[in-house]
Specification:
By secondary structure, this protein is mostly beta strands. The protein has 1 helix and 10 strands, in the order E-E-E-E-E-E-E-E-E-H-E. The protein has a 10-stranded antiparallel β-sheet. A hairpin with a 4-residue loop joins strand 2 and strand 3. The radius of gyration is 20 Å and the shape is globular. The two termini are 24 Å apart.
Amino acid sequence: PLNIFSWGAKLEPIFNFQNNYDTTTNSGTLRPFNASTTIGPYLKYYLSSKWLLDLELNYKLQYFYNDSSSAESQQRSGNVYTFRTSLTNKQAKRFFNPNVAFYFASDSPRVGTEFASNTYDLSFSNNIFLNDLTTINTLLDFTRTLYSERPQGTRADTTFAVKLSGSYRLNNQFTLMADLKRTINVSSESSSYSFNNTLFSVGASYNLF
């Protein structure tokens, strides 16, 4: 690499809408859902010619538009503090390019207690370069979330996810993408929050330059 050590900062504003569907009129209304701004430093350090260490520390200020009509315990606007570190093999081998990452988030609403939580996430992924045009990625992810400030008692969710994704570069501008993901969430309140689903998506990207 040109530099063994590099660092910087990021500023990321996000604004989300939600489509509120009314079954009586069979129509939806697009309304503002939440807005957030994330800011924080990052660091990249090459431990060797093969391994890259990444560190991120972020603060997010978030606002949910439906808080004004929600019970105090359900309000979610407030602060989120996150930490992420990862170790990536940068050799660009054909079949073995692993990454291991750990993520922690502390969600601290200003008023509400229902969604105050600590999240711990550990993931393993690997890139496979079948040829110059085709890349395959596999991902295993384990997440544990504790909602410890709820008036009715602590809720604990454990989420397992497996993902297979791929991309194919048609030319210098167009790339086709697809992914298949299976998620299982096991909650201490299984009747309300346990679920499992399978998602498949396809897309394309276009590079302007």
